Amino acid sequence: MKSMKPPLLLFIFISVSLEALPVSVTGNNVGAYHPTDDITVDCGSNTSSLVGGRNWIGDAADRSDYSPIEKTHSSTTAEASSSSPSIPGAVPYLTARLSRSEFAYTFYVTAGPKFVRLHFFPSDYPNFRRVDSFFSVEAAGYTLLRNFSASLFADYTHSVRFFSKEFCLSVGEDQILNITFTPTPGTSDAYAFVNGIEVVSMPESLYYNTVVDSTEGIKVVGLPSPRTLDTTKALEAVRRLNVGGQFVVPADDTGMYRTWEADEDYVTSSDIGILPVNTTIQLNYSEQVPNYTAPDVVYTVARTMGTDKRINLSYNLTWSVEVETNFYYFVRLHFCEFQIEINDPLDRVFRVFIDLQYADVIKCSRKGVPVYRDFAVALYDSQKKRTNLSVALGALPDGSTLYSDAILNGLEIFKISNPDRNLAGLNPDPTPPASKAAKIAIVAGGTLGCTVFFFLAFFLHRRKNRAKDSTSSDGTSWWGPVSRSTTKSMKTQWSSLPLDLCRYFSLAEIRAATNNFDKVFIIGVGGFGNVYKGYVDGGATPVAIKRLNQGSQQGLHEFRTEIEMLSQLRHLHLVSLIGFCKDAREMILVYDYMARGTLSDHLYNTDNPPLPWKQRLEICIGAAWGLHYLHSSAKHTIIHRDVKTTNILLNEKWVAKVSDFGLSKVGPTSESKTHVSTAVKGTFGYLDPEYYRHQRLTDKSDVYSFGVVLFEVLCARPAVSRMAPMEQISLAEWAQSCCKSGAVEEIVDPHLKGSITPECLNKFCEIAMSCLQDKGANRPSMNDVVWGLNFALQLQVSTELEAMDHVGVSVHDSDDSDHDAASIRGSGSDEASNTSGGWKSSRETATSTRARSNDVCDESTTSYDAGKLP
Ligand SMILES: *[C@@H]1O[C@H](CO)[C@@H](O)[C@H](O)[C@H]1NC(C)=O
Ligand SMILES: *[C@@H]1O[C@H](CO)[C@@H](O)[C@H](O)[C@H]1NC(C)=O
Ligand SMILES: *[C@@H]1O[C@H](CO)[C@@H](O)[C@H](O)[C@H]1NC(C)=O
Ligand SMILES: *[C@@H]1O[C@H](CO)[C@@H](O)[C@H](O)[C@H]1NC(C)=O
Ligand SMILES: *[C@@H]1O[C@H](CO)[C@@H](O)[C@H](O)[C@H]1NC(C)=O
Ligand SMILES: *[C@@H]1O[C@H](CO)[C@@H](O)[C@H](O)[C@H]1NC(C)=O
Ligand SMILES: *[C@@H]1O[C@H](CO)[C@@H](O)[C@H](O)[C@H]1NC(C)=O
Ligand SMILES: *[C@@H]1O[C@H](CO)[C@@H](O)[C@H](O)[C@H]1NC(C)=O
Ligand SMILES: *[C@@H]1O[C@H](CO)[C@@H](O)[C@H](O)[C@H]1NC(C)=O
Predict the structure, then answer these.
(1) Domain extent for 241
(2) What residues contact residue 836 under an 8 Å CB cut-off, 6+ apart?
(3) Which ligand number lies closest to the CA of residue 58?
(4) Position in ligand 1 atom list of the atom nearest CA 489
(5) Stretch 524-531: mean pLDDT
(6) Ligand 1 site-directed mutation target among 254, 292, 486, most atoms within 8 Å of CB
(7) Per-residue pLDDT tens digits for 651-679
(8) Which residues are catalytic?
(9) Residue ranges under compositional bias (Polar residues) (predicted)?
(10) CATH number of the domain to which 79 belongs
């Protein structure tokens, strides 16, 4: 095995030089930060080695400070099997700590945020097969990895078989940082392993922040005001790109040993722009953006749109990074103006889109002043494990800016932990063997992530220090001179320009779209007026057109509020407002057309085939997600006030969208005021009894109504059945009493008989019951509901899979919340308000048979925070 190393190193070196990839540029601010804790452990090694200027301490040495703690003392150390085709040949990947039972490393570190980097080389080790590693890693109360397969991950990401994962987490005062490795229970061969561990301090406010004002903080895409990222969140680094530039190895970071990749493999727009560079610019860091934020080299190269204005305007400069779904992502964009022609803030103004949604407008900074902008975006998808997160920059048209152009210098993307302190996603599906080939070639081509760079760092270090190769090194850089300069700070003025997101339609356009409000086009009727189906854009785009009654109570003020509010609310699970029309007499709102009508249509209208159970669950999850988004809106909680199955619409892909915010109220902001007092509105049968009694509206009133929706979905019975026996009139009461008496199966929709697993049914009823708690304070948040429903879905799917494959999927329910739900009295009042706020579709497209995938979210991946961030 040892004899393999030199040729392999040489091979990589040659490939890499041919491709001219790893240019390490040593800037002036290298080592600008000195971490208080800088610990590197070479797991499974009985010696310590100095690599990259850092002492990797063997955990197997006698009396090592970092020997793991184990209950069973059964872990072993090993070298990677020599039959392994691509042994990396560098510390810490040569040796590993492995065990079929739990082991933990203990680090006595100072309080504050830390990087935790875990290094893995999935390989055959004596008595441990490469494919059998399945384990969880926990640290400081966070789940970093769960049932993680290092081999599946490596194969999927085409890495050179070894890789590292970087996490950021905060260690409290007097807290000991324990990192615990636990093999996945239930499989006898499963084992946990690790090759290397780094724990490195970071500056308090590098990524975490506590300040919120209108200019600082993290802008959550789709929400109006910024949030903070507080230290209750952990992060996992997904990508860190030196845009327009070259690899930056850990040793050339600002002291935190981060790796910065070249961005070219992530540029996905048709045009990739051009790469300006300024090697003489004096970088002027500031208090807000100190010199350790990123290496100088990040700020002195960039990618811009090109030299032709027409081209600049015709595309968005776009980067895409594949990420796991069902998490929030933290996206940091680094900018620095250094081009000679840019002088004034209005010289280069451009828009940022994240995940295809408008995020911000960027004005240029003062010359040579590094700045960054932080965003967060939720990527929710109940069907897919992974998706591409896109960041796009688009030029503003002539007139608003001197150069229709955009610039980006650096890009960092992190996954944000869920409220249950989890960062773990699902393993990727196994990669077909063919695509596993030619790893080294891929390395040379540079497609892979941070993993290579650790290797390169060691490699370069070896070259530098051992001078194995006679062509090597003048000490800092082989690649020629680089600018070096740092001066002191300057305030930067990047500001947001307001952008009108909402389109204006002329009355003539609306008349043309609806054949002058022809009755034939009416698809819904509500207290406010009629809803028409129409086509705009020359017939290309179907829309739903809500024409407010001229005598409608919804006055101009409400009309305007709705437009302002809705145009700020963009979410996959909310019906989008496309535009509006305001005439002397008409007030018209134009929405996305929902081809499959309302959820109610699919529960009660016998023209539609009955929806299968999993699809119902997914629709509930989508709607819950939409409501959660309303409730967690930045400045205000938005309370829907009229949650019901006729207000949950379905598009052609069966994606649930919450609609009709006609009654919505902006809720309280501060904790001191937890409700808004208001005349009772809503729909009988769905009405929160607490709200009804006290006229105190809170977001929990929506949770109550949603509980009724859940039982409707389960039973396909309307919220109120007037002709039914007394005790069955109110679905909420009837369903609760059936649940309590254990007779719930009797009220389940007969179409679903036999298709709901008992575990799933229990969980589902438990969630619905908790939503119907008499006291609002005892009801879950919509976030909890999203979480719980996903868990129910997972229970359904895993039980089905188990039955199918006899696979031992172990699932357990950790949530033992008791439900002492009291009975609900909707006492007296009839039909408190309009009965149909939604609109129906023409039915021609309706069909409920759709191929379902089994890729369902893990319980761990689906929840997100209603609190601070996100
Ligand atoms: C970074 O900034 C700090 C404080 O402003 C300063 O003390 C330090 O010398 C700078 N380091 C480098 C490498 O520029
Ligand atoms: C150190 O480990 C190597 C193999 O990893 C082994 O050959 C050697 O005997 C060990 N030395 C001690 C002192 O345990
Ligand atoms: C961490 O490990 C130490 C030593 O085993 C133990 O005393 C301590 O309770 C652990 N702390 C946590 C938070 O698990
Ligand atoms: C780099 O920036 C400096 C200072 O603003 C400027 O004088 C110089 O012309 C710039 N060089 C290039 C290539 O843009
Ligand atoms: C840029 O992206 C946004 C969001 O996806 C899109 O609305 C806009 O049309 C795009 N611009 C161009 C020129 O393609
Ligand atoms: C992300 O984009 C890449 C290339 O554009 C594509 O190969 C990959 O399949 C995409 N991933 C997902 C999950 O859509
Ligand atoms: C288009 O972008 C290029 C390069 O980034 C910039 O130099 C140029 O001025 C832009 N063109 C116009 C006419 O604005
Ligand atoms: C662990 O992951 C593997 C591969 O993704 C999967 O087949 C298995 O069911 C998972 N086990 C558990 C307990 O989640
Ligand atoms: C750096 O910024 C400060 C504060 O804005 C300013 O006073 C100083 O002149 C700048 N230095 C250079 C070299 O531009």
Answers:
(1) 205-379+408-416
(2) 524, 525, 526, 646
(3) 2
(4) 5
(5) 76
(6) 486
(7) 988 999 998 765 455 544 333 334 444 44
(8) 642
(9) 830-851
(10) 2.60.120.430
